[in-house]
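Researcher: Here's the sequence for the chain we discussed earlier.
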Amino acid sequence: NYEEAVLNTTIKLGATEKNDIFTVSSEIGNGALTYPVGLITSDEVVMAGGRGYGSASNQGENSDYYLYTASAFYTISPSHYTAGGVSRVIGVSNLGNLEGPDVSESKGIRPVISLQINALFSVGNGRNENPYVIIK
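Model: Thanks. This is the structure I predict for it:
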């Protein structure tokens, strides 16, 4: 199931092939993007504090991490196909735990950008009214 697939594997945040590094520039990646924004992965949700659905220590509701907003959203990570051929992805429920919704369900998305490790910001706290300003 999707909880085991996410919670019992090694988290991978980097790509090893240049073709798998989606960037605007072809100097450091594949140059396939017009805008440098992607969707959050299930690995990133787990690293932030997301949990599976259940009662084990790494499962259950979690409203105590920065991605929790009481609103359900999709990740870009695939989950499985049902016996009826319905495609599912890994999502986060309105309770803050991982789930495997049908791709046809109405849910939000979480856009992300990736910054180089030496990126600096000058002002802001990340909120709409006071966004980060990246200076390098």
